[in-house]
Design a protein that fits this description.
Blueprint: H1 4-30, H2 37-50, H3 62-91, E1 101-107, E2 113-120, E3 130-134, E4 140-141, E5 143-146, E6 149-156, E7 160-169
Antiparallel strand pairs: 1-7, 2-6, 3-4, 3-7, 5-6
Helix pairs in contact: 1-2, 1-3, 2-3
């Protein structure tokens, strides 16, 4: 298509909306936050407008795409805000008492997932030599510090959250195989 951005943003919004809605349902079900029906509806309305007639096939006028791109970005920001707020609300009810820094990882997929997570962590005394990350089961997971970010392997259940314990380490790399 001549309008790859329109298709890309449309798909990103579909995925982001799904994640935001699932997290919002969980937050409401747990009683920590009400479901943001109006905000999600408004964002979905913007996305659905971009699916109208000639926009996704890429045959609209250039001016129409300027408006559509703007709508996609606004919707993306709304979905991201809802997702952040809902997951923070759910995490507030989880046990995040750890030795180091608690990192909550959210999986909006309908299947369990194991993947590399990249986390931005602010270290109070500057970046350590290395990191050690412990999973919810108490076992250390492969981890490393790279360009000020912590990379580690996380396993999270379907449409679930898992809390990991990130600890500073004196060792250059404390990754395990």
């Amino acid at each position: 298509t001549s309008q790859a951005y329109q298709k890309r943003w449309n798909r990103k919004n579909e995925l982001l909306a799904d994640a935001a809605e699932k997290a919002s349902v969980a937050a409401e079900w747990l009683g920590v936050r009400s479901y943001p029906r109006e905000r999600l509806t408004n964002a979905w309305t913007l996305v659905m407008g971009g699916q109208f007639h000639d926009l996704l096939p890429g045959t609209s006028t250039p001016k129409a795409f300027q408006f559509a791109w703007n709508d996609e970005v606004i919707a993306m920001n709304q979905f991201a805000g809802v997702l952040t707020s809902a997951t923070q609300a759910v995490v507030s009810g989880l046990d995040t008492q750890v030795k180091g820094t608690a990192i909550a990882v959210y999986n909006p997929l309908n299947v369990a997932r194991e993947d590399v997570v990249e986390a931005n962590v602010n270290f109070l005394n500057g970046a350590p030599q290395g990191v050690r990350v412990v999973g919810p089961d108490g076992r250390e997971v492969p981890a490393q510090l790279s360009n000020g970010k912590v990379l580690f392997v996380a396993k999270v259940p379907s449409v679930g959250l898992a809390v990991y314990d990130m600890q500073a380490s004196d060792a250059r790399s404390s990754s395990t195989e």
